[in-house]
Write a sequence for this structure.
């Protein structure tokens, strides 16, 4: 039995069950065997064939036509679709003309000897077939039927297997300890998005944490050395598309590690757990500073599957006599940036170009100009008359413009101009792809580390105050530590984001392990009450090892790997974007007597109280 | 690197970290190697030795005494206990007289070349040593220090490894799919112990479910075939000793399976994941009906590590002329039961016997008599005069009474008499063990299946009404199905409990898969509103496969395996028995403005409002 333990072995799907084989398992090699199958009635044809389905596939059953099996025939001819059957029979070759090479069991069929209806089904609200169109609402309401689709079966099984491989890598290969941390805890400072759980003590509430951040640091202080957890996290953001009130992260923390240690660990983790049937990934992943990412892609999560990078052409335009541009360049951080949309002249219609400019205008209040390289080698644009021949060639060279390319150009403050063009870069890609070009290969997986973020950012509402760019436990970059006390806005952090195909799928940092430094950050930089984190400050003073970690967003990662349109497609029972469970109808009305033990009352909004009175 | 994947390989604890070895790793074979160690200062002796500790053990460091290393010496001589160090040095043999065979690294020591204080520690509230006595409150308040103890490290690591082996067995060997189910759901009918989570919709609440019961059944209906999850569950029971508001169960469900299929699966699971260093377990586990367990042990979770079974001596006493006993025997279910406490005369003092009888009286309102077999072979007891010689020998034979044994005897209704004696059996065992006898070997693991429970029980407050003995989804025993409609109290269920050394560590059942039967149970037997479970009833009608499952209480199981006094010792951050987190002080006060988005207000109890006014 030890051979079974080897990791390449196929699981036994039939152990302990009332069948000999699954419906996806039988091949020519099984011909002649007597088998027992259990499954759902997929369809029945002409009282001759019945196709039985389970999670692994489809098997064609031959309905016996002889008198001795009339009872079996009557069962199989009258059983409603999607009813559950158990049949026994003999595996036979299909007649050559009936072989079906498109399904793995297409060479065989099973001549039924006995049949039993285990459960009869009523007519379903939709058919369980590959390409049945059904509304999202219907799918959610009857999620248990939606789960029967081969796509959902694939998604959930791939997720389970990939997480299992991650566990093998972390636990069996690298000595990580899987530790469960509490989900009933107390409110984090600034944790405005945390769900509350009333306790039986009047006025006291637990909070459902957004991540096990504090606990994993406390585990390091507790000497656990290497922690991981597939952690359920909670975030109450109200309604947001493609966000879930509960989600899952692969949560990792290590002692005596630096940034590069965590990065190599994660690269190994992803390579080890990567599904065999997907394009392989190569490690180490490339790395880019936050400043570089912003400058070249206008975002901190660049999609590096395609080019169209942002080019700074400020120097070139310093000598160009356009008042608008000169005004911009005179300002601090004033720049001129451009991207080159390849074959834009052929692929983008005028209305597309207008819509790109309109986006820039309406979302960013930014003018965008465009230029085209004509077949004669000259730039066509209202502005081209301001550029002399040399300036034109310089621009063409800088952006490597080819005939029929379209250049989008923005003059403005560095960060804003980059953001705008980063946005138009993605929009242009979508427009180009609509014409059949493949820029963002859906089967390619481009990982990227983004590093050297600022440690603090000015608060959006009160720019004079600072907030953590990520969280207050992030350590400053070793080269910038002294700046912490003089110019905190200039301090880079030891935070790292992991980006896949333009989506952030993980983030982490080396943490502050010095109690004084942590107190300074909380008290002096962030102006927060350190009392709320007194247990952590106390712990840091009791021999905290240097430590760091990361969290990977599992739902998003699996979603990208299977190419699903929404994370709802990789979660068994997701909530709607409003946070509803449409199947069981949660959240639900609760009566005052059930609230009593928790010492709470519903505070009805004025409108509803008025409505009730009428 | 593929060799690393084999399951017997030792994890690499030093990968990605700033050390070459752990503090528990070095042996004679390493002598001569230059190593880097990171760890905590356990103690320092005479400015000559320093012992460094990490999760894996202790290593003795030799403090250099030569001038060239004066800086290193001054660091190592002044560093506070429990500070975090990184040192480099050379592994050497200890002088023969200093070898310490009691620790794995006792043959070697490390001559330090460089030392760096990674973090200095303040004086801790207690020492991190094996036998440091500390109060439970102190341990909980400084849990991160308590976790540094070798016992807590062992408990959490064993838990992690055992769960990993369970996952290998379920996922890799038997094709189970690890599916995460929601914890924000709606209230279950009768789910009075469910925590509530206010939503942003006025008056509407999520519930934190006590188990994924509904979801796992819906997954079977969704064709997932084999589901497992290490599931976080929630139960608000107020204060209960050794219960936790959140706990973990190994949650399993399978389609096309019967009771014996689940039992064999679980036996295999436990055998496969059983820690190597513990006494091995043998499978299959013995099985006992609920009726047998009650009759022989007076409980549904018998500790089968020792005898002292309850014997029915009713027939023998029918002819004994004691009015009290005759009165009992004339009643329905009237019985006389006895247990024989071996060597009770030598091990139990009179006050012990009185206290046993007092327990029976105060907790059960039951008289208990006692008899002793004297060295002359006659029974000593006030009642013995009512027994003739033949009756005495019959009793001695029936209970296999030896000289100096004490017999405890109870006359009463069957179930009550059994419960009382079952209780006294355990209390007597504790008393005998206090004298040095070993009845319940703490290193032995006796598993037992208890089966054939009643499906329904009369409600305690309203005995005319019925409630589910376990839950309303449990299927009736196949032989008793017809009784469901005529005499529901006589129906046995397809529920099974798994008992280990007298503790229930799991329970499950084959479920009802027929929608009509489920509706009948809910509506007609339990008189519950089926509307609350309409989604499940609808799902059962849509081709639900026959299915069943089980849940193992992970915290309790690990607790029994490591022999911990409380489940708090196998949970990283447990709550106190009042549900408090003493480290972070949860639950915590929440202000009205933070409650506003959830449309709730605190309903202060009258007493507190009054107190505030004064």
């Amino acid at each position: 039995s030890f051979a079974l333990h080897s990791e390449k072995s196929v699981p036994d799907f039939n152990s302990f069950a009332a069948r000999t084989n699954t419906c996806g398992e039988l091949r020519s090699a099984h011909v002649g065997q007597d088998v027992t199958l259990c499954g759902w009635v997929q369809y029945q044809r002409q009282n001759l064939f019945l196709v039985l389905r389970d999670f692994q596939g489809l098997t064609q059953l031959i309905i016996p036509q002889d008198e001795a099996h009339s009872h079996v025939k009557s069962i199989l001819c009258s059983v409603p679709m999607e009813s559950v059957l158990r049949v026994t029979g003999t595996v036979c070759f299909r007649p050559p003309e009936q072989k079906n090479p498109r399904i793995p069991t297409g060479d065989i069929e099973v001549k039924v000897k006995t049949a039993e209806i285990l459960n009869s089904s009523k007519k379903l609200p939709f058919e369980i077939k590959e390409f049945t169109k059904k509304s999202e609402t219907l799918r959610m309401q009857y999620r248990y039927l939606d789960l029967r689709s081969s796509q959902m079966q694939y998604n959930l099984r791939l997720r389970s297997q990939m997480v299992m491989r991650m566990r093998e890598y972390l636990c069996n290969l690298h000595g990580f300890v899987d530790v469960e941390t509490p989900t009933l805890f107390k409110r984090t400072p600034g944790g405005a998005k945390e769900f509350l759980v009333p306790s039986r003590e009047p006025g006291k509430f637990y909070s459902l944490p957004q991540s096990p951040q504090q606990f994993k640091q406390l585990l390091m202080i507790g000497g656990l050395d290497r922690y991981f957890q597939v952690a359920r996290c909670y975030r109450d953001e109200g309604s947001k598309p493609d966000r879930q009130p509960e989600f899952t992260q692969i949560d990792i923390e290590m002692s005596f590690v630096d940034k590069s240690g965590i990065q190599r660990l994660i690269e190994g983790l992803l390579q080890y757990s990567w599904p065999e049937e997907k394009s392989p990934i190569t490690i180490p992943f490339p790395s880019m500073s936050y400043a570089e990412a912003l400058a070249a892609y206008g975002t901190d999560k660049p999609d590096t599957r395609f080019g169209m990078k942002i080019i700074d052409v400020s120097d070139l335009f310093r000598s160009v006599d356009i008042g608008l541009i000169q005004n911009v360049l005179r300002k601090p951080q004033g720049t001129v940036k451009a991207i080159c949309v390849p074959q834009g002249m052929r692929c983008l219609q005028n209305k597309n170009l207008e819509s790109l400019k309109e986006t820039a205008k309406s979302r960013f209040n930014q003018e965008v100009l465009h230029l085209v390289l004509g077949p004669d080698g000259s730039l066509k644009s209202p502005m081209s008359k301001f550029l002399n021949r040399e300036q034109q060639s310089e621009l063409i060279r800088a952006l490597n413009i080819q005939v029929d390319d379209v250049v989008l150009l923005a003059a403005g403050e560095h960060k804003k101009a980059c953001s705008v063009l980063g946005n138009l870069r993605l929009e242009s890609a979508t427009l180009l792809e609509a014409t059949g070009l493949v820029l963002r290969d859906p089967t390619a997986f481009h990982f990227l580390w983004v590093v050297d973020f600022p440690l603090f950012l000015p608060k959006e509402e009160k720019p004079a105050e600072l907030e953590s760019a990520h969280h207050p436990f992030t350590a400053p970059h070793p080269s910038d530590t002294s700046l912490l006390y003089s110019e905190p806005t200039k301090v880079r952090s030891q935070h790292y984001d992991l980006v896949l195909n333009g989506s952030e799928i993980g983030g982490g940092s080396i943490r502050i392990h010095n109690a004084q430094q942590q107190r300074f950050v909380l008290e002096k930089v962030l102006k927060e009450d350190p009392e709320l984190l007194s247990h952590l400050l106390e712990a840091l003073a009791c021999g905290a090892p240097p430590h760091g970690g990361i969290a990977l967003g599992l739902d998003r990662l699996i979603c990208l790997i299977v190419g699903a349109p929404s994370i709802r497609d990789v979660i068994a029972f997701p909530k709607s974007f409003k946070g509803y469970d449409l199947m069981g109808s949660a959240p639900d009305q609760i009566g005052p007597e059930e609230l009593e033990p928790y010492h709470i009352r519903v505070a009805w909004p004025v409108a509803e109280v008025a409505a009730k009175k009428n």
Observations:
- Confidence is low (pLDDT under 50) at residues 1-7 of chain A.
- Chain A touches chain B through 141 residues (CB under 8 Å).
